Amino acid sequence: MTKLIGLSGSLRQASYNSALLRSAAGLMPEDSELVIETIRGIPLYDGDVEAAEGVPEQVSALKGAIAAADGLLLVTPEYNNSIPGVFKNAIDWLSRPPADIPRVFGGKPVALIGASPGGFGTILSQNAWLPVLRTLGAELWSGKRLMVSRAQTVFNQDGTFADQKIEEQLRAYLKGFVAFARSAQQKTLDS
């Protein structure tokens, strides 16, 4: 069984990115699962808080879930042509202390997808994640890209797909990413 952790970078209740993540969980290939976790409630990163109180329990639990998973799916909105602050903040906490980076992110298969009401999907946000993921030592799956443009026409009011073409693209994307994660998992077992 290949287990992925999925995170939406949006806190909004009716988020297109959270709808995309929920849809992904229902479209996983056979013998795989996508567990949806949340960044809701993670405080703003503050080095003084970290020094005085340590890493928040919610962050520690999420770090453990990511470390134990076979891959990580980041579903990113695009704010002001870049990464949403709340999502970057969560990853900043997840990389604390620096000694934990190899355990949580080192060699971890990671994939990026996103949805936007605009015409370019989340291309700039996805590109902005590249140096962050490289710095963390993650293994980015770049076999395909999935950027959902004009998301208000792609999803129904209940968050399900109105556009079957996008649903099929997501299904194919997940199939490719799961194969990538399984390959990485096999390499780890073989070494």
Describe this entry's structure for a reader.
Helix content is 47%, strand content 16%. The two termini are 20 Å apart. It has helices at residues 16-26, 47-53, 57-68, 85-94, 101-104, 123-136, 151-154, 164-190; strands at 2-8, 32-37, 71-75, 109-115, 139-140, 146-148. Helix 6 (123-136) links the parallel strand 4 and strand 5 (139-140). The protein contains eight helices and six strands; from the N terminus they run E-H-E-H-H-E-H-H-E-H-E-E-H-H. With 191 residues, the chain is of the alpha/beta class. Strands 1, 2, 3, 4, 5 and 6 form a six-stranded parallel β-sheet that branches.
Chain-wise SSE layout:
Blueprint: E1 2-8, H1 16-26, E2 32-37, H2 47-53, H3 57-68, E3 71-75, H4 85-94, H5 101-104, E4 109-115, H6 123-136, E5 139-140, E6 146-148, H7 151-154, H8 164-190
Parallel strand pairs: 1-2, 1-3, 3-4, 4-5, 4-6
Per DSSP, the total helix count is 8
What is the overall silhouette? globular
What is the element string, with H for helices and E for strands?
Answer: EHEHHEHHEHEEHH
Q: Rg, please?
A: 16 Å
* Unreliable spans: none
| N/C terminus separation | 20 Å
User: Could you tell me the strand content as a percent range?
Assistant: 15-25%
Sheet having the most strands = 6 strands, parallel
Give the overall pLDDT as a whole number.
96
Could you give the count of β-strands? 6
* Global structural class: alpha/beta
What portion of residues is helical?
40-55%
